Design the sequence.
């Protein structure tokens, strides 16, 4: 596996080694020992799988307690994936990074605890998998407003996205609970 840096050092793209031939392909998407050697020694406790159609935007989600690191990837279609640094002590506080994750490029992203996370589907349909380092804790779930002008995220949208009510009610960064 290769680690590819992003504009925020703690968020990385992971490129697995893919073996392919006329039958198809094979790759190891997670190996605890390998990830630890790459600097991601976290234990994952929950796997999630979503399916969405083009233009669905999910996020920007985080948990203020029981913070979650996320290992994310698209296994069908493609998404534009975004992480926003909510760690006040970080030199990149309030900055975001976006990347394409797709079934074709097979890249994964590591989003550490302390970040808000979301994605928009850029293909007709996408299936998105993510491993988390802590369990879903609804009382601690928070939502950063996906279109906060202070963040100026360059979502690749063709018109308005389809979003859930909780995402529409997200708070701008200036009003969000953040991390130390």
Sequence:
């Amino acid at each position: 596996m290769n680690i590819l840096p992003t504009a925020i050092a703690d968020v990385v793209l992971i490129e697995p080694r893919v073996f392919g031939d006329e039958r198809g392909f094979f790759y190891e998407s997670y190996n605890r020992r390998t990830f630890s050697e790459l600097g991601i020694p976290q234990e994952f406790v929950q796997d999630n799988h979503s399916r969405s159609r083009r233009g669905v935007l999910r996020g920007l989600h985080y948990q203020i307690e029981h913070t979650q690191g996320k290992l994310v990837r698209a296994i069908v279609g493609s998404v534009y994936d975004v992480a926003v640094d909510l760690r006040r002590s970080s030199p990149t506080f309030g900055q975001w990074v976006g990347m394409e994750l797709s079934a074709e490029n097979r890249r994964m992203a590591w989003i550490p605890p302390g970040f808000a996370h979301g994605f928009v589907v850029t293909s007709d349909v996408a299936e998105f998998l993510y491993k988390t380092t802590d369990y879903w804790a609804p009382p601690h779930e928070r939502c950063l407003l996906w279109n906060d002008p202070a963040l100026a995220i360059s979502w690749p949208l063709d018109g308005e996205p389809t979003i859930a009510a909780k995402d529409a009610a997200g708070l701008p960064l200036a009003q969000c609970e953040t991390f130390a």
